[in-house]
Design goal:
This protein is α/β, with parallel strands linked by helices and 377 residues long. It is 41% helix and 18% strand.
Amino acid sequence: MNPSPKRVLHIRDSGGMFGGERVILTLGRNMDREVFECSLVCMDRGDGRCGPLMEAAERSGIRVDSVRVRGRIDLKAIRFLRRFIRENEIDLIHTHDFKSDFYGVLATRGMQVRRVATAHGSTRDSFVKRLYLSFNEKLVYPCFDTIIAVSEDLQPRLEGGRLKPEKIRVIQNGLDIGVLDVCGGGFEPPLPRPGNRDHRVFAVIGRLYPDKGHAFFLHAFETLSHEFPDITGLIVGDGPERERIQSSIHALGIEERVFCCGVRKNMRLVYDSIDYLVIPSLTEGLPYVMLEAMACGIPVLATAVGDIPLLISDGQTGYLVNPGDVTGLTRRMRDLIVRPEAAKAMAQEGRRLVNERFSAPSMVGKTQELYLSLIGR
């Protein structure tokens, strides 16, 4: 008689469809369901931002619940999580951000439940956020059995806190391209796409934060726009920098060429609508948007930060530039336009690399082994 599956609960304070959400969906969709039974509790702040993850999880066959969280510390929410964990006989919780980490520890206090947290490489764009993350890394993470770092670049930062090195496990993001199909739904206005077949569309995709480097992209684009009048830029995503980015677009005189498109659920449509992905970030881990674009055969130009150089070999699987190097970014954006055959060859090699080394089975297999090492077979 086969033993009952081990029960794993993911907890997420979701603000949209980002890397943490993709990790949860990829694990939930690809785990061995004879061995693991995965469920998800979303922390609902009442702003509707957890809705897309809940809908995508339901489409993926993952059990989903939500708990309303009011304020920084909601004792009622903690009691809900504790009751949920006890009643559903959860063996292991897996949290994905500093709020779910904190609540997960409090909810399982004194219980025989294993704890795993994933460090996704959160931005540190404000004093308050840096304070929260420092508290998380120094006081909350030590309460976990294992911390998963999504990139090798994150490991030294985690070791700089109070974590023992043996508690840290690097498991790089793996791509399940099918996640794109469960994240769509609902009407969205079409993306700007001129009818001219020779037109080229560059896109920067992700949250609008200072360390994402949108300003460098805009300056490079403005320089190129004089030489190539038939190029368009798309800024896909939302965040606190949106107003500043729109002001920069206007100040540079490229408001008819660069468009802020907001958050998009249907990322397949986005990838079908662009020619090149640009990642001008100052910091990164291993961005899912890069994996997705490469798997879709889109040439990628990115900065040499985080684990990006593990995928992008300059001139072979994409183009690499130094962070903050507007001149280098401009030169490589020009190369993508004037060397279409080289761009196509890099995209093909990039797709092969992602399929071979950064697919879902690698990430899921390593995570399953971690779970089993903690809760037994």
